[in-house]
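Supplementary notes for students who missed Thursday's class. We covered one full example, reproduced here. Read the sequence, then the structure, then the short commentary at the end.
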Amino acid sequence: MQDTQREFLDSLLETSSPSGFETPSQRVWIEYVSGFADEVRTDEYGNAVAVHEGGDGTAIAIAGHGDEIGFMIRDITEDGYLRLSRIGGSDRTVTRGQHVTVHTDDGPVAGVVGQTAIHLRDREDERLEDVAEQFVDIGVDDGDAARDLVEIGDPVTFASGLESLAETRLAARGMDNRVGIWTAAEALRRAKAADADATIYAVSTVQEELGTQGAKMVGFDLDPDAIIAVDVTHATDTPGVPGKRSNGIELGGGPVVARGSANHPRLVEALRSVGDDEGIPPQLEATGSSTGTDADAFYTQRGGVPTVNLGLPNRYMHTPVEVIDTDDLDRAADLLGAFAASAGEHAPFAVSPEKGVNDQ
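Structure (token representation):
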């Protein structure tokens, strides 16, 4: 990964964007893609679209979601503590004892999620409190002092930063799904450098963690010939993953093409073919019921839009220490850039009556 691309990734990861409050991160993304896109636009809810204008009539969208999980202040006690509710699928097992940031209109406020010391706890009652029972301490003495600093509805995120691990591995909160919008932007840049004949949309959606809401808006509005939804997927190559949850996906093993459910067989076939040609054979993932990504919203738009989910291996999802391999990101961007540059050769994507959906 080149320095400019790494700086872009770092900026995304260092900018908080809980669902419903994505504007700061979307601005980082827009500033980057504006350097090479023919057009950049946003809609009323902040979905961002960068465009390469092609001339062959084919239109392809490559989309990630720009939001992350987090919390929200739902109440302020008279003692000055903040009560929380979830934004998206926040994990109660990793919250207590963490540094957090409250994002207010006047700037960030530091806090910690309280955890009673082991010496003082009732060792016979070690149950995990739900997020709604936990609290944030911002260091004030009473509710009035707290309300001078924060207000109900302010979003909260973990304060953990970006850390480089060995070789090409990185750890941070919010890899899900800053790495996806990084990949969408880089795929567009590479397709434009290849002078792609197709029109290519790179998209950063909002509110995926709240039920793929932004994808529903964008999928209807753009109406492309095909959509690739780029999101993290579970790398199950670590201790502690139950055998029944293992999927064979390895960190550093390259991008992952999903099969089944939302994933259109012609697009699966096309990505695998381009991957083989480019020396980037993808890993495969079975998604028998749903992908759990924006692909689930995209593919039902306007009577059905051919869609596929491209996964980026991620360890420890929905924790403050998600781990990815930057080589996987580069390979994914190379694969999608090459696919976009040759999209006209693979279109149209409708399943042929002469070829069954399982014939790949």
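Commentary. The longest strand covers residues 226-234. The chain has a mean pLDDT of 94. If anything here is unclear, bring it to office hours.
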